[in-house]
Specification:
Largest sheet: 6 strands, mixed
Radius of gyration: 17 Å
CATH architecture: 3-Layer(aba) Sandwich
CATH class: Alpha Beta
CATH topology: UDP-N-acetylmuramoyl-L-alanine:D-glutamate ligase
CATH superfamily: Ribokinase
Number of domains: 1
Strand order of the largest sheet: 3-2-1-4-5-6
Structural class: alpha/beta
Helix content: 25-40%
Distance between the termini: 29 Å
Order of helices and strands: EHEEHEHEHEHHEEEHH
Length: 268
């Protein structure tokens, strides 16, 4: 059986993040990727200049088309900029009894551009977090979701992750890429022990799409039948290597993309 994962997210016209990064990640990891486009963005490595939201009814139509035909093993949810889009996705997931949902609560682009309205954040908290197998916020996103200051250490990260568990999340992978130090540490927290995922921090400015890539890599692992801990471990290793290979690419004049196909030896 061919493993299949679906990404429900926004399109990145420059190809480094969003739907495009997710599909590249699925392909690199041997998973067939399908997509539901929730928003179109006019963006490049320097920033986002415009967002065009897809109507909620058309998001629902895409979900129904994909899930009624494909045997979907995992779902990655990324940028949903409007409350109506979030509600349409939540209803669609319920309609099709979707499994292995990875929620990446994308709020701000690497460039600093805000991607989510305040109303949408509230609906995301109430409608999607409880439906996810795992929520994957970075430090600013975790702070926004919990109403706290950005975590300064692993203890703060754990506290905020547990607040998200209290909102209904089954598991939280809180990402430490925005932190300091030689290590980039993520914490996977659920009902059991805290799992610490650490990698040496890579010195590069080419980090566009990092969060999208990690969450889609987790979804790819789940689609292939891995448990969450194994999927998160493999995803961390994949993203670290993709960041390490990022400077081999010469794309754009701002925050460049990761090298999703580093293992294939291609610099395209």
């Amino acid at each position: 059986m061919t493993p299949i994962a679906v990404t429900i997210a926004g399109s990145d016209s420059s190809g480094g993040a969003g739907i495009q990064a997710d599909l590249k990640t699925f392909a690199a990891l041997g998973v067939y990727g399908a997509s539901v486009i929730a928003a179109l963005t006019a963006q490049n490595t320097k920033g986002v200049s415009a967002i065009h939201d897809v109507p909620a009814s058309f998001i629902a139509a895409q979900i129904d088309a994909v899930f009624s035909d494909l045997d979907v093993g995992a779902v990655k949810i990324g940028m949903l900029s409007q409350a109506a889009a979030i509600r349409a996705v939540a209803d669609g997931l319920d309609r099709h009894q979707a499994k292995n949902i990875v929620l990446d609560p994308v709020m701000v682009a690497t460039s600093g551009d805000r991607l989510l309205t305040a109303e949408a954040i509230a609906v995301l908290r109430g409608s999607l977090i409880s439906r996810a197998l795992v929520v994957t916020p970075n430090l600013p996103e975790a702070a926004a979701l919990t109403g706290a200051a950005m975590a300064r250490n692993e203890r703060d990260m754990e506290v905020q992750a547990r607040e998200l568990l209290a909102l209904g999340a089954r598991n939280v992978l809180i990402k430490g890429g925005h932190g300091d130090g030689d290590e980039s540490v993520d914490l996977l927290i659920g009902a059991g022990d805290v799992i610490r995922l650490s990698a040496k921090r890579v010195a590069t400015g080419n980090t566009h799409g990092t969060g999208c890539t990690l969450s889609s890599a987790i979804a790819a692992g789940l689609a292939k039948g891995l448990d969450l801990a194994a999927a998160a471990h493999d995803a961390k290793a994949y993203v670290t290597a993709a960041i390490a290979g990022a400077d081999r690419l010469k794309v754009g004049h701002g925050h460049g993309p990761l090298h999703h196909f580093f293992a294939q030896g291609s610099d395209e």
